Amino acid sequence: MTWRPRLAEGTAPVLVVLLLLLVGLAIAGPAYDEPSGYLALLKRAAPLMILAIGQYFVIVSGGFDLSVGALVTAGVVIAARLIDGSESATTGVILLVLGFGLLVGLVNGLVTTKLLVPSFIVTLGMLLVLDGAVFLWTDGAPRGALSAGFRTFGRGALDVPVLGEVPWSVLILLAILVAAALFMRSGTGRALVAVGDNEAAVRLSGGQVDRLRLLAFVLSGLLAAVAAILLGGFAGVSAQVGSGLEFRAITAVVLGGVLLGGGRGSVVAAAAGALSLEALFTLLNLLGVSGALESAVQGVIIIGAVAYASLGGGLRQRLRWWPKQRDSVRPAPS
Amino acid sequence: MTTATTTTVRMTGISKSFLGVPVLQGVDLELRGGEVHAVMGENGAGKSTLLKVLAGVHRPDGGTIEVDGDPVSFAGPTDAQRAGIAIIHQEFTLLPHRSVAENVFLGREPVRRMQVDRRRMVADTRELLDWLGEDGIDPTDAVSSLSVAQRQVVEIVKALSTNARVLGMDEPTAALADHEVELLYDLVRRLRERGIAILYVSHRMREVFDLSDRITVLKDGRFVTCAPTGELTSEALVRHMVGRDLGEYYPDRAAPADLGPVRLALRGAGNDRVRDLDIEVRAGEIVGLAGLQGSGRSAVARAVFGVEPFTRGVLEVDGTPRQVTRPRTAVRLGIALVTEDRKGDGLALRQSVRDNTLLVRRAALRGARSRARSDLPALLDLVTVVSRGEHQEVRFLSGGNQQKVVLAKWLAVEPKVLIVDEPTRGIDVGAKRAVHELLRDLARRGVAVLMISSELPELIGMSDRILVMHDGALAGELPAGASEGAVMALATGHGIGEVA
């Protein structure tokens, strides 16, 4: 049997989009003449890509996770307050933040699978709970500061042979991406996609549907915590650091050709969707488009991508606004 | 509006491909007013596509369509309607809360003084109903108050109101109860008498012989033959459809020496739906489970498999009493269930042939067993021969091939007990035979097979013993080769003795 690379269905468009955007960047910005420019882009995009990978697990198994943005904010605010500039507390606090993300994912997953509340509602509720808790705890202004050690992951770089200085966040992203891609090739990963496609079929095949969904939420929560650590280092402490990231991650996943409702899509494409989104915002910025337009652009993308996924090849026909030339049975009016 | 001019439609050399896969290749069909013309063929032979080409739903890639000698080309169903051609769909498209007349003229309501002219709508609908001789339906009745058969009449009236002279019917009896089928036969015959041409697509041999004047047979998208119904026997028709003689239809039964120990045993088992079940299935045998719809046949399967577990009695696997309260436990004990709803809970339709085949192994087993790869080529061989490779999504496969994927997914875990519920429902003759042979082959290799089927010839042809259920309990057991009458007598609640 000859092995040939195969793209999961719906992956090709996002790769084309990404390529076009990268070419666009090379033309529009002088910084993108050299690899370092792209490395900087990747570094900026890393937290969103990691969030998109987490969101992918939940979406492909048939759910939504709206809590990740609030979870990022909570992670950063908690870390800043507990570390309060102390270098020695760093390791413990990092573990605590990761544990917190895992716990939030566990609660999301348990409420969804055991109490049978739709994940959209559960995670929306979690978003509000986390937002409220952060506000209560900080009175609206986060206190404390992150240690230099903590900020290394979001800011620092590692000297890698051949490549030179590679940001930590890029290395972490690559490790997560490779692990996620391998996981999705495993039996458990394939079963996760099948759950999004037909839950009953998986259950009647002896699969543990609830555990698989729970796993997806836990992974999403954990990866949101990782994104919080990177963003805290990169962007610093604020009560708005994670706001809106849940929708950005969902947009990225959808842009990656992953079917809302589950059952189809690749994790690499979801990550590519996140990178495309970041590249697009960078390009718009270079072209002098106001940053205020970002959310509008994002809205258009999410609607467009879903329309493309639902209609596929039929889209061109539907979008034809002028009447089609008919060779009907009726004689043309003279 | 009911002048009886007859129409002749001639389709010549019709070809159609989807995504490069040819579905129709040079098919000819002639349809005359006042005839019922049946189109037969296996699943995937191109019957429905041909119908849709005629109705303007699909545009042919090649070939011509003539109506009364004039070449036509349809850009959509509306064009076909204008040429007098309409399809009666399998899924009804009526609005239940509106009246018959409102449904008939939906979107084409006659207007008078800027208002819908209800009186004319009702009068025109009544005229058509009278013309058809359907006086049991009033134009002002709400559709929701009508039976399924009557709704079909309304669909047909709706088509006739657009002056349709050619009606295409795709499996029109699929949604009907047995007594309603006769009503449909009557209606079709009346339509024929009134000069309507009817293109009748159906799987069911008996219907086609009862109703049609001519039969066109398609195989793999090609025209095989067209002959007056009177000149064909059912054997000849099957031969044309399958392209070979089916001969002896069912594989040989098990010899007494082939039977092994009892694999599955129920002792006084029951739950809300079934009661007092005493059943033994041995290695090497196929036990048929017969009964009417709702008699509890499928409930037995679901209970053994732990979907709706038994609450009383004992379930033994290989002689050991077991508590099976969820499918996972059943799978790990070596029990497999092929459900009757292939698309609903058998397959993950958007996943590939490979992923579906491996689903049970991956989802239910642990460790090395879940990653076992050695037998994979043979397993995929069983299913890839029928698909365009193991990476094709199963939703693109025909019903028969999908069923083979379901079977392959269970073979991947080598079950000891295989329960199949309607294993050949909705699949074509050739695939049916392959499934039968596969089941017998599994039995020969020591699997205990419990087979549920509504199709009595299949059940009788395949089973080494037949258990008949009635009203949630076993009504009796019959030996191999029992008559259909004996099975039905038990299934309807009469003793064997009463069958003369």
Strand order of the main beta sheet of chain B, please? Answer: 6-9-10-3-11-12
Number of DSSP-assigned strands of chain A: 2
Biggest sheet record of chain A = 2 strands, antiparallel
* CATH class annotation of the largest domain in chain B: Alpha Beta
Strand content of chain B: 15-25%
Helix content of chain B: 25-40%
User: Helices and strands of chain A, in N-to-C order?
Assistant: HHHHHHEEHHHHHHHH
| Integer average pLDDT of chain A | 86
Structural class of chain A: mainly alpha
CATH superfamily of the largest domain in chain B: P-loop containing nucleotide triphosphate hydrolases
Radius of gyration of chain A: 22 Å
- What structural category characterises the helix and strand content of chain B? alpha/beta
Q: What do we call the CATH topology of chain A?
A: ABC transporter involved in vitamin B12 uptake, BtuC
Rg of chain B, please? 26 Å
Could you name the key traits of this structure?
heterodimer; A: 334 residues; mainly alpha; ABC transporter involved in vitamin B12 uptake, BtuC; two-stranded antiparallel sheet; 14 helices; globular; B: alpha/beta; Rossmann fold; six-stranded mixed beta sheet; ATP binding (chain B)
